């Protein structure tokens, strides 16, 4: 007689998950939909008071639990598509290697993992970066690395800023969408298409995705109307997207899993659509390498992940292999350091690439 399956579940929420109450969670969910929604509008949608919303936002920022930043469009800071890199280290040296990797401005996200690799990182070839040298010399030359495997992202179907905590009503969501960024202008495809004022404004909005026009005006010594028009132009052309930074563990999703999938070619588009709409999806991409699709998801627990693998992936017979690495520690996400669930310093080294190469002191004179 076969042995019964034993399902192991966590008996209660982790301590870090209890740092936020229902009001905080509603606020996070609202900001994920429309990060620049004014405090008064947030209060109205959430049936709260402006003072309560402002106080909650201030606490979340002060305690480094939440930050709204700006995500620059890839063509403004990169020369080509990103790579996803899997690294195997000498025994006992993973954390030492990770600290060295964190010195690279091109590394956007980095996790310590278990499974077939010890470290996962996403690498962005910033303007001026020799990506061949980075992938074949600088990165694998770090002491303690045994091997690296990089995969070129061919198509990023789903990205981190689209992941949502689903807890608001349809009516609330609809009202928040009125405050969401709408791209209505022609896209900018290079830094040279940004004016000096737009570049300086973008730098401020990257650091604070909710920065008001009045603060931009003061920082750049321009009128408030000019600051408003400039910031709106950046948003409406898709040069910059506001993004909520918060660790999913705080929201009840402590398990990070990276699945490398081998898929029959004709099934890739349909699988990307299905995975991209899955509640777990943080980053879903089609890649060139040993696998076809990579799904980076966050899950409530091991049973949640098991159900995803057996039921959701199992519904696709065209998926021939699944290689899963589990993230045991997130060290950086979207150029922001992580200290457990708290946000650390932002790695703003990549911002220098926003400026054209010839933007020298001589040119400014």
Strand order, sheet with most strands:
2-4-3-10-7-9-8-5
Find the count of extended strands (DSSP E, 2+ residues): 12
Order of helices and strands: HHHEHEHEEHEHHHHEEHEEHEEEH
Radius of gyration, CA atoms, in whole angstroms:
21 Å
Roughly what fraction of the amino acids lie in strands?
25-35%
Helix coverage percent: 25-40%
Oligomer: single chain
Bulk shape? globular
Counted by DSSP, the helix tally is 13
Mean pLDDT: 91
What separation lies between the terminal Cα atoms?
Answer: 84 Å
Structural class, by secondary structure, is alpha+beta
Unreliable stretches (pLDDT < 50, length at least 5) are 357-365
Largest sheet: 8 strands, antiparallel, barrel
Keywords:
globular, 365 residues, two-stranded antiparallel ribbon, 8-stranded antiparallel β-barrel, single chain, disordered C terminus, alpha+beta
Description:
- This protein has 365 residues and is α+β, with helices and mostly antiparallel strands.
- The chain is built from 13 helices and twelve strands.
- It has helices at residues 22-33, 39-45, 50-62, 74-77, 94-101, 131-138, 170-177, 196-207, 213-220, 224-236, 268-276, 302-313, 361-364; strands at residues 67-72, 83-89, 107-114, 119-123, 145-158, 240-245, 255-263, 281-288, 293-299, 319-333, 336-339, 342-346.
- It has an eight-stranded antiparallel β-barrel with strand order 2-4-3-10-7-9-8-5.
- Strand 11 (336-339) and strand 12 form a beta hairpin.
- Helix 2 (39-45) crosses helix 3 (50-62) and helix 8 packs across helix 10 (224-236).
- The longest helix has 13 residues, at 50-62.
- The protein is globular, with a radius of gyration of 21 Å.
- The termini are far apart.
